Amino acid sequence: MLAAMGDAGIHEDRATGRRSTLLPTLFPLLLALDLLIVAGVILFVMDRPPICPCGTIKLWHGVVQSSENSQHLADWYTFSHVIHGFLFYGLAHLALRGRARRWTLPLAVAIEAGWELLENSPIIIDRYREATIAFGYSGDSIVNSLADIGWMAAGFWLAARLPVRMTIALAILFEGLTLLLIRDNLTLNVLMLVWPVDAIRTWQGAGGLL
Questions:
Q1: Which of 50-54, 126-130, 142-146 is the least confident region?
Q2: Which DSSP symbol is given to 177?
Q3: For the chain, where are the alpha helices, taking DSSP H only?
Q4: CB 75 within 8 A of CB 111
Q5: pLDDT digits (tens, 9 = 90+) for 150-188
Q6: How many whole angstroms separate alpha carbon 137 and alpha carbon 133?
Q7: Residue 131: CB partners within 8 Å, gap ≥ 6?
Q8: In angstroms, how far is CA 153 from the centroid of its own chain?
Q9: Three-state DSSP class for residue 179
């Protein structure tokens, strides 16, 4: 059993014939943590603020149109990062086989970290300001960026533990909830970055329920 777990981080339940998850063994997990630290160091070199300029670290900040948005441990966009984890797990499940599967989480962390670095670059910050409702967006704090990577990993872990239908249902719930409450979600965020639609931007600017 230990050999099987060390081989690919997965095994087969002999009673049900069901394959278990793509969760990593020790070394891939340590690599994922190393990548998280490297991302934090690069963000620091990029001169990103370590914490919110307000001087505090909150578990949750729920006001979207605020200078403190994307500065704390969690906010309404946290749900998008959890969905990232769902998607990365699903893609890895379809694309990777055998021993390659043990590296799925480090790969997901590397991709998410890469996005956090890009997201906090001037080109994407300016794009957010021009094309989305984030008019005063100035980038994330390092705490927020690292937390976002952690939330992605949490989504990855959930997808590894939950039935596929439940994972899909959660993703739809998260997208619908944030669409209703803040008039934004992962789908609209990607759309507005890639192909801005003025009508959607005007609708978003009217504000959600919060």
A1: 126-130
A2: H
A3: 2-8, 26-45, 78-95, 104-119, 122-131, 142-161, 164-182, 186-194, 198-205
A4: no
A5: 999 999 999 999 999 999 999 999 999 999 999 999 999
A6: 9
A7: 192, 193, 196, 201
A8: 8
A9: helix
